[in-house]
Amino acid sequence: GSTSLDVTNTVNPTFNNATPGPYTLTYTVTDDNGCIGTDDITVTVNGNPTAVIAPDPAEVCAGVDLVMNGTPADGSGVYTTHAWTNTGSTSLDVTNTVNPTFNNATPGPYTLTYTVTDDNGCIGTDDITVTVFVTPVIDALGPIVECESYVLPAITGADVTINAAYYDDTQLNGGQVVSGTITQSGTYYMYDGANGCSDEQPVLITINPLPTVTNVTGEGTYCPSEIAADILVDVTGSADWSVDYTLDGTVQNATGSSSPINLGNAAGVYVVTNVTDLNCPNTATGTQTITINPLPSAPTAGTDSEYCNTVPFADMTASGGAGTMTWYSDAALTSVISTGPTLAPNNTEGTTIYYVTETLNGCEGPESQVTITVNFCTITVPTAFTPDGDGVNDDWEILEIDQAYPDNMVYVYNRWGNLLFTSVQGDYDNNRWDGTYNGDDLPVGSYYFIIEYNNDENEKVNGIVSILK
Prior knowledge:
Layout (H helix, E strand, L loop, with lengths): L20 E10 L5 E10 L5 E4 L3 E4 L4 E2 L1 E4 L8 E6 L14 E2 L5 E10 L5 E11 L3 E2 L5 E4 L2 E2 L5 E2 L6 E3 L9 E2 L2 E2 L3 E9 L2 E12 L3 E6 L2 E3 L9 E5 L4 E7 L2 E7 L4 E2 L5 E9 L4 E3 L3 E6 L12 E4 L7 E2 L6 E5 L7 E4 L2 E2 L6 E11 L2 E2 L3 E8 L8 E2 L15 H4 L4 E5 L5 E4 L13 E2 L2 E2 L3 E8 L7 E8 L2
Parallel strand pairs: 4-10, 12-19, 21-28, 29-36, 37-43
Antiparallel strand pairs: 1-2, 3-6, 5-8, 7-9, 9-10, 11-14, 13-17, 15-16, 15-18, 18-19, 20-22, 22-25, 23-24, 23-26, 26-27, 26-28, 30-33, 31-32, 31-34, 34-35, 34-36, 38-39, 38-42, 40-41, 42-43
């Protein structure tokens, strides 16, 4: 039953059969006498155990443990020894010869051999190639804090492929690819993988909105005595805020923990340029102007004057700038008499002080004063005079007539009604009647006179004046 008996050496033939089973061998010896001797022997051929390695195919990521399972093919588990060998790897853990752990950080193919020896001393072997795939290692990123938006950068790391991408959730949760510009805060995930080997790194991205200036208010026009309203800047964002602006071209800054931000109330042109909150800066616009108009000077109010109550008064005239003149009757400037550049004094006996101010661009300046004195004036018309050249009563003197009645006219007639004397209007004191007519002395006697006051009432008086010697 065996064709593997090597009879080339008849003394010590070699038996070999690949098929297990009992085989009977007969050994025959013939001596020189032709005598024959025989012996039979049964050769038992045991089958070799078959070593089986799992998993197959054996694939693992670099640096990851792979537990190898070695089992005899018949599943009996009856064996004397196990042995593992490997090529190019020193990481095979043979402390457990049944299920050693394979781990290698370097990608590549590695050949493992599993050897089983059974109780009969028969040996079975199996070879397997373990493929170690590269594992990408992604560089950590963040946390990221940006204003308004964030452009996702390229994913970097060791052995990162061109397929590395950002996702809005983990791969386990079915994350979707995101790219480009991020405008929403959240946790994103960097993922890269191939051949079942991957790396996933979370990155927290916080997108803060830009602060804004929504309104700038407070401009106005004021006088020096008034308190100007503050320039206020309404802002959005997260406290605290800082507002950059210029005041008449000079760079300024104001800060605050609540909106609006107060820029103050100094005079000038306010131009808002930037706003910064707790997280972000932003450009801004807004212009407001506070104007403080100067006070006009006290006007020139005219000359203090004294009048008789019988005469018309000259108007008081105030002069100054281009504003409006206001006349008051009291020093506190509470009782307005009139407005305009001129005012006629009232005909009230005694001393009256008038106050006048100028108002320009809504601002009233200091006052000036005019004092007007009104006297009660009467005239005395003498009934006789003595033009004899003695220096006493040589002309007809009518006291205070020019002061009391500045437009007066004096006429003197003889008893026949002939006009003998006419005065210069309003200037009688410098042209008194001296008792002559055409340079000749008039005789002693009585003469008729008419005095026209030429006042508002058109009053006049007449009577007799006598020349005495």
